[in-house]
Write a structure and sequence with these properties.
Elements: E1 2-5, E2 8-14, E3 25-33, E4 38-48, H1 50-58, H2 67-88, H3 95-102, H4 112-125, H5 129-148, H6 164-176, H7 181-200, H8 230-238, H9 244-258, H10 264-269, E5 275-276, E6 279-282, H11 285-288, E7 297-300, H12 303-312, H13 331-355, H14 364-377, H15 382-388, H16 394-402, H17 406-414
Antiparallel strand pairs: 1-2, 2-3, 3-4, 5-6, 6-7
Helix pairs in contact: 1-2, 4-5, 4-7, 5-7, 9-13, 9-14, 15-16
Amino acid sequence: MSEKIKGYKISIRLDIRRKKETDKYPVKLRVYGKQTQIEKWYALDIDLTEKQFDTIWINPDNKNLRGSNNETRLKLQAIETRANKEAEQMTVFDFAKFEAKLFRKSTDQSNVKYHFDLVIHKNLKNNKIGTAESYKYTLNSLADFSENQKKCNIEKLSFNSITVDWLNEYQNFMLSNGKSYTTIAIYTRTLRAVFNNAIENNDIIKDIYPFGEKKYKIPQTRKVKKALNAEQLKTLFNAEVTNENEQQAKDFWFFSYACNGMNLKDIALLKFSDIKEDRFNYYRAKTFDKTAKKTAITIHLTEYTKSIISKYGNENKDGFVFSIIAVEDSSQTQYNKIKNFTRLINDHIKRIAKANDLPADISTYWARHSFATQSIRSGVSMEFISEALNHSDLSVTKNYFAGFEDEAKKEFANNLMNF
Protein backbone atom coordinates (compact mmCIF):
# COMPACT_ATOMS: atom_id res chain seq x y z
CA MET A 1 0.00 0.00 0.00
CA SER A 2 2.55 2.59 -1.04
CA GLU A 3 3.31 4.88 -3.95
CA LYS A 4 6.47 6.45 -5.32
CA ILE A 5 6.23 9.81 -7.06
CA LYS A 6 8.74 12.62 -7.49
CA GLY A 7 11.29 11.46 -4.95
CA TYR A 8 9.19 10.27 -2.04
CA LYS A 9 7.54 7.10 -0.75
CA ILE A 10 4.47 7.08 1.48
CA SER A 11 3.06 4.10 3.36
CA ILE A 12 0.98 3.14 6.39
CA ARG A 13 3.01 1.18 8.93
CA LEU A 14 2.57 -0.41 12.35
CA ASP A 15 5.29 0.93 14.66
CA ILE A 16 6.26 -2.20 16.59
CA ARG A 17 9.25 -0.58 18.28
CA ARG A 18 7.28 0.02 21.48
CA LYS A 19 4.18 -1.85 22.64
CA LYS A 20 1.64 0.10 24.65
CA GLU A 21 0.03 -1.06 27.90
CA THR A 22 -3.01 -2.09 25.85
CA ASP A 23 -0.81 -4.63 24.01
CA LYS A 24 -1.29 -2.57 20.86
CA TYR A 25 1.09 -0.61 18.66
CA PRO A 26 0.61 2.86 17.14
CA VAL A 27 -0.26 3.01 13.45
CA LYS A 28 1.81 5.66 11.68
CA LEU A 29 2.28 7.30 8.33
CA ARG A 30 5.81 6.65 7.08
CA VAL A 31 7.26 9.15 4.62
CA TYR A 32 10.63 8.62 2.97
CA GLY A 33 12.42 11.33 0.98
CA LYS A 34 14.57 9.69 -1.67
CA GLN A 35 16.85 12.67 -2.29
CA THR A 36 17.58 13.35 1.37
CA GLN A 37 17.29 9.67 2.36
CA ILE A 38 15.39 10.82 5.44
CA GLU A 39 12.32 9.08 6.76
CA LYS A 40 9.73 10.41 9.19
CA TRP A 41 6.93 8.63 11.02
CA TYR A 42 3.73 10.56 11.83
CA ALA A 43 1.33 9.40 14.54
CA LEU A 44 -2.28 8.90 13.41
CA ASP A 45 -3.93 8.37 16.83
CA ILE A 46 -4.82 4.78 15.90
CA ASP A 47 -3.59 1.75 17.88
CA LEU A 48 -3.86 -1.83 16.63
CA THR A 49 -2.47 -5.26 17.45
CA GLU A 50 -0.32 -6.92 14.84
CA LYS A 51 -3.20 -9.26 13.96
CA GLN A 52 -5.67 -6.38 13.64
CA PHE A 53 -3.28 -4.43 11.42
CA ASP A 54 -2.77 -7.49 9.20
CA THR A 55 -6.53 -8.04 8.93
CA ILE A 56 -7.40 -4.41 8.27
CA TRP A 57 -4.48 -3.24 6.15
CA ILE A 58 -1.99 -5.90 5.02
CA ASN A 59 -4.22 -8.76 3.90
CA PRO A 60 -7.78 -7.49 4.14
CA ASP A 61 -10.79 -9.42 2.96
CA ASN A 62 -12.85 -6.42 1.95
CA LYS A 63 -16.01 -8.45 1.76
CA ASN A 64 -15.74 -9.58 5.36
CA LEU A 65 -14.59 -6.28 6.91
CA ARG A 66 -17.37 -5.00 9.09
CA GLY A 67 -18.03 -2.33 11.71
CA SER A 68 -15.05 -0.63 13.32
CA ASN A 69 -12.54 -2.58 11.23
CA ASN A 70 -14.03 -1.24 8.03
CA GLU A 71 -14.18 2.30 9.47
CA THR A 72 -10.50 2.10 10.45
CA ARG A 73 -9.51 0.91 6.98
CA LEU A 74 -11.45 3.72 5.29
CA LYS A 75 -9.82 6.26 7.62
CA LEU A 76 -6.33 4.95 6.84
CA GLN A 77 -7.06 4.96 3.12
CA ALA A 78 -8.21 8.58 3.33
CA ILE A 79 -5.02 9.56 5.18
CA GLU A 80 -2.78 7.81 2.66
CA THR A 81 -4.66 9.29 -0.29
CA ARG A 82 -4.46 12.80 1.10
CA ALA A 83 -0.77 12.41 1.94
CA ASN A 84 0.02 11.29 -1.62
CA LYS A 85 -2.10 14.11 -3.05
CA GLU A 86 -0.28 16.78 -1.01
CA ALA A 87 3.14 15.35 -1.86
CA GLU A 88 2.30 14.94 -5.55
CA GLN A 89 1.48 18.64 -5.89
CA MET A 90 5.03 19.64 -4.93
CA THR A 91 7.55 20.07 -7.73
CA VAL A 92 10.29 19.04 -5.31
CA PHE A 93 9.36 17.09 -2.20
CA ASP A 94 9.94 19.08 0.98
CA PHE A 95 9.14 17.76 4.46
CA ALA A 96 8.32 21.18 5.94
CA LYS A 97 5.82 22.05 3.20
CA PHE A 98 4.39 18.53 3.29
CA GLU A 99 3.81 18.66 7.05
CA ALA A 100 2.25 22.13 6.86
CA LYS A 101 -0.27 20.95 4.28
CA LEU A 102 -0.97 17.50 5.75
CA PHE A 103 -1.76 18.64 9.27
CA ARG A 104 -3.77 21.74 8.50
CA LYS A 105 -7.57 21.79 8.54
CA SER A 106 -9.22 20.80 5.28
CA THR A 107 -10.76 24.28 5.03
CA ASP A 108 -7.35 25.98 5.29
CA GLN A 109 -6.57 25.20 1.65
CA SER A 110 -8.88 27.94 0.35
CA ASN A 111 -8.97 30.10 3.51
CA VAL A 112 -7.78 33.70 3.02
CA LYS A 113 -6.71 34.32 6.62
CA TYR A 114 -4.75 31.05 6.72
CA HIS A 115 -2.67 32.14 3.72
CA PHE A 116 -2.17 35.65 5.09
CA ASP A 117 -0.95 34.14 8.36
CA LEU A 118 1.54 31.98 6.43
CA VAL A 119 3.06 35.05 4.76
CA ILE A 120 3.08 37.03 8.01
CA HIS A 121 4.79 34.18 9.89
CA LYS A 122 7.37 33.75 7.11
CA ASN A 123 8.29 37.45 7.16
CA LEU A 124 8.50 37.54 10.95
CA LYS A 125 10.76 34.48 10.84
CA ASN A 126 13.01 36.28 8.33
CA ASN A 127 13.02 39.46 10.50
CA LYS A 128 11.04 41.41 7.89
CA ILE A 129 8.91 43.08 10.53
CA GLY A 130 7.73 45.96 8.35
CA THR A 131 6.56 43.63 5.58
CA ALA A 132 4.72 41.47 8.10
CA GLU A 133 3.03 44.59 9.47
CA SER A 134 1.84 45.62 6.00
CA TYR A 135 0.18 42.21 5.53
CA LYS A 136 -1.46 42.57 8.94
CA TYR A 137 -2.87 45.99 8.00
CA THR A 138 -4.34 44.55 4.79
CA LEU A 139 -5.84 41.58 6.61
CA ASN A 140 -7.44 43.87 9.19
CA SER A 141 -8.93 46.00 6.41
CA LEU A 142 -10.33 42.95 4.63
CA ALA A 143 -11.76 41.69 7.91
CA ASP A 144 -13.46 45.04 8.51
CA PHE A 145 -15.19 44.86 5.12
CA SER A 146 -15.96 41.15 5.20
CA GLU A 147 -17.46 41.17 8.70
CA ASN A 148 -19.30 44.51 8.60
CA GLN A 149 -20.48 44.60 4.98
CA LYS A 150 -20.62 40.96 3.87
CA LYS A 151 -21.46 39.48 7.31
CA CYS A 152 -18.73 36.88 6.87
CA ASN A 153 -16.22 36.29 9.67
CA ILE A 154 -12.66 36.66 8.39
CA GLU A 155 -11.90 33.19 9.75
CA LYS A 156 -14.34 31.76 7.18
CA LEU A 157 -13.54 33.98 4.19
CA SER A 158 -12.44 31.85 1.23
CA PHE A 159 -10.72 32.82 -2.00
CA ASN A 160 -13.80 31.63 -3.89
CA SER A 161 -15.81 34.45 -2.28
CA ILE A 162 -13.47 37.19 -3.51
CA THR A 163 -14.83 37.93 -6.97
CA VAL A 164 -14.60 41.01 -9.18
CA ASP A 165 -17.88 42.27 -7.69
CA TRP A 166 -16.56 41.64 -4.16
CA LEU A 167 -13.44 43.69 -4.89
CA ASN A 168 -15.45 46.55 -6.42
CA GLU A 169 -17.65 46.60 -3.31
CA TYR A 170 -14.53 46.60 -1.14
CA GLN A 171 -13.14 49.56 -3.10
CA ASN A 172 -16.38 51.52 -2.65
CA PHE A 173 -16.41 50.61 1.05
CA MET A 174 -12.89 52.00 1.43
CA LEU A 175 -13.73 55.22 -0.42
CA SER A 176 -16.84 55.75 1.68
CA ASN A 177 -14.67 55.49 4.78
CA GLY A 178 -12.29 58.20 3.58
CA LYS A 179 -9.52 55.94 2.28
CA SER A 180 -7.53 57.07 -0.74
CA TYR A 181 -7.02 55.21 -4.01
CA THR A 182 -3.37 54.88 -3.02
CA THR A 183 -4.34 52.94 0.13
CA ILE A 184 -6.77 50.80 -1.87
CA ALA A 185 -4.00 50.04 -4.38
CA ILE A 186 -1.59 49.01 -1.62
CA TYR A 187 -4.09 46.68 0.05
CA THR A 188 -5.37 45.08 -3.16
CA ARG A 189 -1.81 44.51 -4.41
CA THR A 190 -1.06 42.75 -1.13
CA LEU A 191 -4.20 40.62 -1.51
CA ARG A 192 -3.16 39.81 -5.08
CA ALA A 193 0.23 38.61 -3.82
CA VAL A 194 -1.50 36.24 -1.36
CA PHE A 195 -3.72 34.97 -4.20
CA ASN A 196 -0.60 34.25 -6.28
CA ASN A 197 1.03 32.40 -3.37
CA ALA A 198 -2.04 30.19 -2.94
CA ILE A 199 -2.08 29.40 -6.68
CA GLU A 200 1.65 28.67 -6.69
CA ASN A 201 1.13 26.24 -3.78
CA ASN A 202 -1.63 24.49 -5.75
CA ASP A 203 -4.16 25.33 -3.04
CA ILE A 204 -6.53 27.18 -5.37
CA ILE A 205 -7.07 27.13 -9.13
CA LYS A 206 -6.21 30.00 -11.49
CA ASP A 207 -9.80 30.11 -12.75
CA ILE A 208 -10.98 32.00 -9.65
CA TYR A 209 -8.22 34.67 -9.90
CA PRO A 210 -10.14 37.99 -9.89
CA PHE A 211 -7.35 40.32 -11.05
CA GLY A 212 -6.25 41.28 -14.55
CA GLU A 213 -7.62 42.20 -17.95
CA LYS A 214 -11.43 42.35 -18.05
CA LYS A 215 -11.43 41.64 -14.30
CA TYR A 216 -10.75 43.84 -11.27
CA LYS A 217 -8.11 46.44 -12.03
CA ILE A 218 -6.06 47.74 -9.12
CA PRO A 219 -6.19 51.57 -9.10
CA GLN A 220 -3.19 53.14 -10.81
CA THR A 221 -2.05 56.05 -8.69
CA ARG A 222 0.92 58.35 -8.89
CA LYS A 223 1.95 59.87 -5.62
CA VAL A 224 3.27 63.40 -5.99
CA LYS A 225 6.79 63.63 -4.64
CA LYS A 226 6.52 66.54 -2.24
CA ALA A 227 9.63 68.58 -1.69
CA LEU A 228 10.82 71.90 -0.32
CA ASN A 229 12.26 74.46 -2.71
CA ALA A 230 15.52 76.27 -2.05
CA GLU A 231 13.89 79.15 -0.19
CA GLN A 232 11.86 76.80 2.03
CA LEU A 233 14.96 74.70 2.75
CA LYS A 234 16.78 77.84 3.88
CA THR A 235 13.84 78.83 6.07
CA LEU A 236 13.70 75.40 7.73
CA PHE A 237 17.47 75.25 8.24
CA ASN A 238 17.55 78.67 9.92
CA ALA A 239 14.32 78.18 11.90
CA GLU A 240 14.55 78.71 15.64
CA VAL A 241 13.59 75.75 17.83
CA THR A 242 11.90 75.75 21.21
CA ASN A 243 13.27 72.51 22.68
CA GLU A 244 15.81 69.70 22.23
CA ASN A 245 13.33 67.45 20.41
CA GLU A 246 12.77 70.07 17.73
CA GLN A 247 16.53 70.57 17.36
CA GLN A 248 17.03 66.83 17.03
CA ALA A 249 14.23 66.62 14.45
CA LYS A 250 15.77 69.38 12.35
CA ASP A 251 19.26 67.90 12.65
CA PHE A 252 18.25 64.40 11.54
CA TRP A 253 15.97 65.74 8.78
CA PHE A 254 18.88 67.65 7.24
CA PHE A 255 21.27 64.74 7.87
CA SER A 256 18.92 62.64 5.75
CA TYR A 257 18.76 65.37 3.11
CA ALA A 258 22.55 65.80 3.01
CA CYS A 259 23.03 62.02 2.68
CA ASN A 260 21.12 61.78 -0.61
CA GLY A 261 17.75 61.43 1.11
CA MET A 262 18.87 58.53 3.29
CA ASN A 263 15.94 56.75 4.95
CA LEU A 264 15.75 57.01 8.77
CA LYS A 265 15.84 53.22 9.05
CA ASP A 266 19.15 53.18 7.18
CA ILE A 267 20.42 56.00 9.39
CA ALA A 268 19.50 53.95 12.46
CA LEU A 269 21.30 50.89 11.05
CA LEU A 270 24.46 52.84 10.15
CA LYS A 271 27.53 51.48 11.95
CA PHE A 272 30.90 53.03 12.67
CA SER A 273 32.46 50.15 10.73
CA ASP A 274 30.68 51.50 7.61
CA ILE A 275 32.63 54.79 7.83
CA LYS A 276 35.96 54.96 6.01
CA GLU A 277 37.75 58.30 6.28
CA ASP A 278 35.46 60.89 4.66
CA ARG A 279 32.75 58.57 3.38
CA PHE A 280 30.54 55.64 4.30
CA ASN A 281 28.85 52.84 2.39
CA TYR A 282 25.51 51.24 3.11
CA TYR A 283 22.84 49.04 1.51
CA ARG A 284 19.32 50.41 1.38
CA ALA A 285 17.20 48.20 3.65
CA LYS A 286 13.97 48.84 1.73
CA THR A 287 15.24 47.29 -1.51
CA PHE A 288 17.99 44.95 -0.27
CA ASP A 289 15.90 41.76 -0.40
CA LYS A 290 14.10 42.72 -3.62
CA THR A 291 17.12 42.65 -5.90
CA ALA A 292 19.62 39.90 -6.65
CA LYS A 293 22.38 42.41 -7.34
CA LYS A 294 23.39 44.20 -4.14
CA THR A 295 24.71 47.68 -4.80
CA ALA A 296 26.32 49.67 -2.01
CA ILE A 297 25.51 53.37 -1.80
CA THR A 298 28.45 55.67 -1.13
CA ILE A 299 27.87 58.88 0.83
CA HIS A 300 30.62 61.49 1.07
CA LEU A 301 30.71 63.18 4.46
CA THR A 302 30.63 66.95 4.67
CA GLU A 303 31.40 69.30 7.53
CA TYR A 304 27.68 69.36 8.32
CA THR A 305 27.12 65.58 8.34
CA LYS A 306 30.32 65.10 10.35
CA SER A 307 29.00 67.59 12.91
CA ILE A 308 25.75 65.60 13.30
CA ILE A 309 27.70 62.37 13.84
CA SER A 310 29.91 64.16 16.37
CA LYS A 311 26.87 65.62 18.15
CA TYR A 312 24.66 62.50 18.32
CA GLY A 313 27.09 59.62 17.70
CA ASN A 314 27.97 57.03 20.32
CA GLU A 315 31.03 58.07 22.29
CA ASN A 316 32.58 54.60 22.23
CA LYS A 317 32.75 54.69 18.40
CA ASP A 318 31.54 51.10 18.24
CA GLY A 319 28.38 49.43 16.97
CA PHE A 320 25.63 51.67 15.60
CA VAL A 321 26.59 55.29 14.99
CA PHE A 322 23.45 56.68 16.63
CA SER A 323 21.69 55.48 19.79
CA ILE A 324 18.37 54.90 18.03
CA ILE A 325 18.69 51.11 18.38
CA ALA A 326 21.08 48.78 20.20
CA VAL A 327 23.04 45.79 18.92
CA GLU A 328 21.39 43.50 21.48
CA ASP A 329 17.86 44.49 20.41
CA SER A 330 15.68 41.87 18.73
CA SER A 331 14.38 42.55 15.21
CA GLN A 332 10.96 43.40 16.63
CA THR A 333 12.46 45.79 19.19
CA GLN A 334 14.58 47.48 16.52
CA TYR A 335 11.50 47.87 14.32
CA ASN A 336 9.52 49.44 17.17
CA LYS A 337 12.34 51.80 18.14
CA ILE A 338 12.89 52.99 14.56
CA LYS A 339 9.15 53.48 14.09
CA ASN A 340 8.91 55.51 17.31
CA PHE A 341 12.00 57.56 16.42
CA THR A 342 10.59 58.34 12.97
CA ARG A 343 7.30 59.42 14.55
CA LEU A 344 9.21 61.66 16.97
CA ILE A 345 11.14 63.33 14.14
CA ASN A 346 8.00 63.79 12.01
CA ASP A 347 5.94 65.22 14.88
CA HIS A 348 8.53 67.86 15.75
CA ILE A 349 9.53 68.76 12.19
CA LYS A 350 5.82 69.49 11.60
CA ARG A 351 5.80 71.82 14.62
CA ILE A 352 8.76 73.73 13.22
CA ALA A 353 7.10 73.89 9.80
CA LYS A 354 3.85 75.23 11.27
CA ALA A 355 5.69 77.95 13.17
CA ASN A 356 7.50 79.05 10.00
CA ASP A 357 4.66 78.88 7.44
CA LEU A 358 6.09 75.79 5.74
CA PRO A 359 3.99 72.89 4.37
CA ALA A 360 2.10 71.32 7.26
CA ASP A 361 2.43 67.74 5.99
CA ILE A 362 6.24 67.76 5.84
CA SER A 363 7.88 64.51 6.94
CA THR A 364 11.16 62.62 6.66
CA TYR A 365 10.12 61.49 3.15
CA TRP A 366 10.34 65.12 2.08
CA ALA A 367 14.10 65.07 2.75
CA ARG A 368 14.61 62.42 0.05
CA HIS A 369 12.35 64.20 -2.43
CA SER A 370 13.91 67.57 -1.64
CA PHE A 371 17.39 66.17 -2.33
CA ALA A 372 16.20 64.86 -5.70
CA THR A 373 14.47 68.07 -6.77
CA GLN A 374 17.34 70.30 -5.64
CA SER A 375 19.78 68.12 -7.57
CA ILE A 376 17.64 68.30 -10.69
CA ARG A 377 17.20 72.05 -10.32
CA SER A 378 20.98 72.35 -10.07
CA GLY A 379 21.32 70.65 -13.44
CA VAL A 380 22.57 67.29 -12.19
CA SER A 381 22.08 64.46 -14.70
CA MET A 382 19.28 61.93 -14.38
CA GLU A 383 21.91 59.16 -14.26
CA PHE A 384 23.52 60.72 -11.18
CA ILE A 385 20.14 61.04 -9.46
CA SER A 386 19.33 57.44 -10.31
CA GLU A 387 22.58 56.24 -8.75
CA ALA A 388 22.24 58.50 -5.71
CA LEU A 389 18.68 57.30 -5.02
CA ASN A 390 19.73 53.68 -5.62
CA HIS A 391 17.04 53.12 -8.23
CA SER A 392 17.16 49.76 -10.00
CA ASP A 393 16.70 51.33 -13.42
CA LEU A 394 16.79 54.76 -15.04
CA SER A 395 13.11 54.38 -15.92
CA VAL A 396 12.32 54.31 -12.19
CA THR A 397 14.06 57.67 -11.81
CA LYS A 398 12.12 59.07 -14.76
CA ASN A 399 8.85 57.97 -13.15
CA TYR A 400 10.09 59.49 -9.90
CA PHE A 401 10.74 62.79 -11.65
CA ALA A 402 7.30 62.56 -13.29
CA GLY A 403 5.81 62.80 -9.83
CA PHE A 404 7.44 66.12 -8.95
CA GLU A 405 5.32 69.25 -8.73
CA ASP A 406 4.77 71.35 -11.83
CA GLU A 407 6.90 74.18 -10.43
CA ALA A 408 9.97 71.93 -10.42
CA LYS A 409 9.28 70.77 -13.99
CA LYS A 410 8.97 74.35 -15.23
CA GLU A 411 12.17 75.37 -13.47
CA PHE A 412 13.98 72.37 -14.91
CA ALA A 413 12.80 73.31 -18.43
CA ASN A 414 13.86 76.96 -18.00
CA ASN A 415 17.31 75.94 -16.78
CA LEU A 416 18.05 73.95 -19.94
CA MET A 417 19.43 77.03 -21.64
CA ASN A 418 21.57 78.11 -18.70
CA PHE A 419 24.95 77.02 -20.02
